[in-house]
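hiii so my PI (J.) wants the whole complex modelled not just the main chain, which honestly fair. so below is everything: four entries, each one labled with what it is. i double checked the lines twice but i was tired so who knows lol
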Amino acid sequence: MTDQTTLDVVPEPARLPAHERVYRRLRDQILFGEFEPGQPVTIQGLTDALGVGMTPVREALRRLTAEGALEFLGNRRIAVPVLNAQAVDELTFTRKALEPELARRAAQRATEDDVSQLTEIDARLDAAIRRGDVKRYLVENHQFHVDLYSLAQAPILTEIVDHLWLRFGPSLRVVCGQFGTRNLPDRHKDVLTALSANDADAAARAMEGDVVQGMEQIRQGLM
Amino acid sequence: MTDQTTLDVVPEPARLPAHERVYRRLRDQILFGEFEPGQPVTIQGLTDALGVGMTPVREALRRLTAEGALEFLGNRRIAVPVLNAQAVDELTFTRKALEPELARRAAQRATEDDVSQLTEIDARLDAAIRRGDVKRYLVENHQFHVDLYSLAQAPILTEIVDHLWLRFGPSLRVVCGQFGTRNLPDRHKDVLTALSANDADAAARAMEGDVVQGMEQIRQGLM
DNA sequence: CTTGCAGTAATTTGATCATATTTTGGCCGA
DNA sequence: TCGGCCAAAATATGATCAAATTACTGCAAG
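here's the output for the full assembly
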């Protein structure tokens, strides 16, 4: 009896390789703000903490640094990068350039089922905001975008955008820690409307709004 | 007395770690078409060929796959991805979205020295085209863009674009192998003119032209 | 007598490799 | 064609070496 807790669409190997497990674990921790930006991490510390050899840890770290989620600080320390104004500017530009396009392509393919699935996620997201549950908000928000972009069937664009999220994710958490979830406007409703109408241009516009609003939040948080 | 052959701004460790050496070597080989797209590579094959342990090789491969330069083929093989029309489309979109912006920012900062340096590279590039030296053409072409983008002082954008180059680099080689270097129009002159005039908009336009032309070449090559 | 500092020792961390273990693909015979 | 065996490759660990950071100790100066 394998531990089939969730219904895996892809018949994932029951036992993922250690480096993959380590990668996913660290990625989620970075993405949802369980690592403070700047807080140093050591390879050996992780091998101890995760109870796994150093080779898988090294592989996961090498991958995460390649994706921009971590950064070598020269002096033998690895950490989540601390964003400065310049970095936020670059990330804003790139997100504005790519994510609306993903929304556009998703809108052309979205079925009713897809939209209702996304609507459910968005409802959970709203609930998390009302509850003040930051972690849950971050998780659902991320899931919303990931699921939406998967509709676009654009693997390269999606991968690039995934990596962008790894760069600003930690800061999103910091911002929420400062300001709470109260005044987090939810711009997803416009996106959903555009999707169900298969209106690609409207979807792109709505997504740009969401991106701008999110990055503005981060920009304000870092001063 | 340290071996200060070149004036290293960054005091690079005289002896690079093996995983870094392996990474750079493989990256260059991928970038300049010494690996056929689709041709499988094994970890053990590389450890034998490069005379180095498997841990550094694994790290380099993990990094390269994260950057999109390599791809796991499921059945225990790693290879340079073969681009299909869809992939070329996505790469074209992303390059058009990002590289003109880098050219724009470079134009705002380019000094006369910078321009003359780039002009030299472009001259060598032209020479390589006339000589029919494909490898050298690819190297100089890449160097031209890398040096140009480094002027933009936009580390994140630059890194993302670097990774894009890893994705289409191998196909560029294939195209040149098919059509030779004869009819490779050089759109870099417009870029250089715009740079020396510090005309950001013109630089962006010229770069878009270069991108479109290059990707069009690739698109034609894959059918 | 206290305090700062330099030089050294000890511990920590990173890098690499050799080896053991597990998984997978291919091949052969029924 | 199918099932099982074999070989090769990938995975993972722990040991070893090197480098660097940290901690410590003793000396000298205020």
